[in-house]
Structure formats: structure tokens, C-alpha cells
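Quick one, C-alpha cells below:
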């Protein structure tokens, strides 16, 4: 059939049956939800986390494989992909969720914090792209979690913002080098209700107040972000690569002085 007449089985485009998806940082929050999403449409899921208990708990939930290691350490990432391929075969999808914004104001950023911020938000993506691509001989899709902080600025987010901005550029370069076999995209969430953020803000009504400023009326759920990641992991996005998709309920569309 010629490409001008191509009409796919649209239901089948989201089906990951028989495909192997590896989730870095899959033990909690957006990562756990991504594991549930990929397994929900048929994927075999390798759940990778630095915390063994979290990886094992999510792997049990999705009938997947638990793998433990530090995604910023080359030897760990090589071992993780080696073990995943040995057990579940070639990888078809990688979702890298890892990242944390804990850097503080620029004046207080020590050399150690600067390096740690870059490692925890960027280095693992470099390793996942480089080492992960070799585990994907049949091609597939990689998705990285960025942040709206990589596109705009917020006080205290200097290192985090630089790393997340760098992530988008790294992925856009990778899409040129890894295509046509492998696609690579970024999902950039706005404020999302994750267990880690809930722990940091236990005050009652925190999410309700934050949600009131969002055009879609609430902060993000981990499933909102996992849905966008799933879109990029499946053939629904077969002709999309190198992009950063903002998933923020419309918040970034507002002028700073617009009424909420
Ligand atoms: N929650 C938000 O409002 C928000 C907004 C924008 C972007 N994000 C981004 O979303 C992503 C996920 O956020 P979250 O709050 O769900 O994450 P999280 O911190 O709750 O979970 C990440 C998981 O990754 C694991 N992990 C951390 N470092 C690791 C390492 N070096 N190697 C292996 N595993 C490691 C942790 O053990 C944890 O289980 C991050 O990249 C974050 O920057 C979150």
C-alpha cells in the first residue's frame, strides 16, 4: 500500500504487546505510573530504581522485572541493560523519569551541588541514550522527563533548569543520530502531585491552591504525565521525534499578570 493511502489499525497503534519497556526511576511517582501504563497496554516492563524495595514492589504490581542500580553510574547502567536484555530480550522502549529539583538559590550553590544537580538531572539521560541505544537493535522509542523549569525560569531552579534545558537539546541531537530506527522525545511536566512533592508540602489545601492557578483547574496527576510518556512510547507517535511536549494543564500559556 502506498503511503498516501495508509490507514493503520488505530487501536493497534497503542498496543505494546510483545515489546520490552525499561523504566529508569520506575519505583515511585511518575515512574511507577509509567510502568503501570506500559504494562496496561501489554509491554513487558523492566523496573529500574536505586531503591531495591521500590523496584521490587512495582515489578510485582506489573508482573515485570526489578533491577537496582544508580543510573548516573556507567557500570550500573551497563549491567542493568545487560540483565534486562538477558531476561526480557531486546528493549523497544526506554522511559527515563529520574530528576530532582533541590538546588536552592544560585548564591548558595556549591560546586558539589552544581555537579550533583547535573548528574541527577542530565548524566543518566546521556548514559541511557548511549548504552540504551545498543540494547535496542530492533528500534523503538525513548522518552525523557524534563520540566517546565527547563523552558522558563524559577528562583532556586538554576541548576535544575539548566540541566532540564540541556536534556531537551541532548534529546534533539540524539533524534538526529539515532533515527530512523529509534525516536527520542521529552515530556516536560508542570506541577504534578507526586509522593515526593506531597511529603515536601504536607500543609492542607496545598494542591487545591496550586491547582486554582492552572487553566485546567488542578495540578497534574502522575497519570497525566504517564499518558504523555505512553504516547511517545507507542506507534501513535511514529512520526514524532526530537520534541519537548509540555504537559502543564495550560499554565505556561498565561501571562504572569493574567488573573487566575
Ligand atoms: N512532580 C513535579 O511537580 C514535577 C514537575 C516537573 C518535572 N518533574 C520531573 O518528573 C520526574 C519524576 O518526578 P517524581 O517526583 O515522580 O520522581 P521521584 O523522585 O518521586 O521518583 C524518582 C524515582 O527515581 C529513583 N531514583 C532517583 N535517583 C536515581 C538514580 N540515580 N538511579 C536510579 N534511580 C533513581 C528514586 O529512588 C525514585 O524512586 C523528575 O525528572 C522531575 O524532575 C516533576
Amino acid at each position: 500500500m502506498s503511503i498516501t493511502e495508509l490507514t493503520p489499525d488505530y487501536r493497534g497503534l497503542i498496543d505494546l504487546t510483545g515489546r520490552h519497556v525499561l523504566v529508569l526511576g520506575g519505583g515511585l511517582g511518575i515512574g511507577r505510573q509509567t510502568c503501570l501504563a506500559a504494562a496496561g497496554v501489554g509491554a513487558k516492563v523492566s523496573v529500574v530504581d536505586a531503591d531495591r524495595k521500590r523496584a521490587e514492589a512495582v515489578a510485582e504490581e506489573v508482573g515485570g522485572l526489578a533491577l537496582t542500580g544508580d543510573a548516573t553510574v556507567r557500570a550500573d547502567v551497563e549491567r542493568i541493560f545487560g540483565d534486562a536484555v538477558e531476561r526480557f530480550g531486546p528493549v523497544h522502549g526506554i522511559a527515563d523519569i529520574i530528576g530532582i529539583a533541590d538546588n536552592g538559590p544560585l548564591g548558595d550553590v556549591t560546586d558539589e551541588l552544581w555537579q550533583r544537580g547535573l548528574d541527577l538531572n542530565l548524566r543518566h539521560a546521556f548514559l541511557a541514550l548511549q548504552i540504551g541505544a545498543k540494547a535496542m537493535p530492533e528500534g523503538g522509542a525513548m522518552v525523557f522527563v524534563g520540566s517546565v523549569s527547563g523552558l522558563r525560569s524559577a528562583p532556586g531552579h538554576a541548576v535544575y533548569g539548566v540541566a532540564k534545558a540541556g536534556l531537551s537539546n541532548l534529546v534533539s541531537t540524539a533524534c538526529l543520530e539515532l533515527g530512523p530506527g529509534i525516536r527520542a522525545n521529552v515530556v516536560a511536566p508542570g506541577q504534578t502531585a507526586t509522593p515526593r512533592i506531597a511529603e515536601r508540602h504536607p500543609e492542607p489545601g496545598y494542591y487545591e491552591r496550586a491547582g486554582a492557578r492552572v487553566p485546567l483547574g488542578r495540578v497534574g496527576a502522575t497519570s497525566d504525565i504517564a499518558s504523555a510518556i505512553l504516547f511517545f512510547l507507542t506507534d501513535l507517535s511514529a512520526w514524532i521525534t526530537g520534541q519537548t511536549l509540555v504537559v502543564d494543564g495550560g499554565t505556561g500559556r498565561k501571562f504572569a499578570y493574567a488573573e487566575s
